Amino acid sequence: MRYAYRRRFKKYRAILNPAPLITASLVLGIGMGGFVDGIVFHQLLQWHQMLSAKVPPDTLTAKGVNMFWDGVFHMLMLVAVGVGVILLWRVAQRREVDKSGWLLAGGLLAGWGIFNIIEGLIDHQLMGLHNVREAAASPAWWNYGFLLASVAMLLGGIVAMRHRGYKPVTHVPESIH
């Protein structure tokens, strides 16, 4: 029955509200982007830590300070992911919301790009807390590359969210109001 409903009214999907799913996926993408940054760059590759440009982790105490602030960062990202999951749960309960996979994927990618842009501008450029790759011969180029890749992620997410497998309608049948 549900499949028949979707198939019958697929061309009318444009009237559904995309904003709740976009909001949920952006928030979830921000949190997930932060987790990827923290896990990959901070922990696995160990290219930097949260304060590694200000407090070089060359002593046990300095390493502990950086680890503490990495933990604070991860806690904030956990909150963002939790809020994103709650918003996504609420989207699933609503019938009038567009539940397009393109919106979800695009929002996740755009959210990740937004996180990276904000983190790159604030932590790398304005406050100088750390560089993408502290031990590089030219850390500034890594920072600029990170921002460029982040803008590409944001734009890719926007393109995905704007992708539609249907055309807007001018007439909506009474049976789906």
Automatic annotation (TrEMBL):
It holds the Pfam family DUF2243. Keywords: Membrane, Transmembrane, Transmembrane helix. The keyword Acyltransferase does not apply. The keyword Transmembrane applies. The chain crosses the membrane at residues 21-47, 67-89, 101-122, 142-161. This is DUF2243 domain-containing protein. The lineage of its organism: Bacteria, Pseudomonadati, Bacteroidota, Cytophagia, Cytophagales.
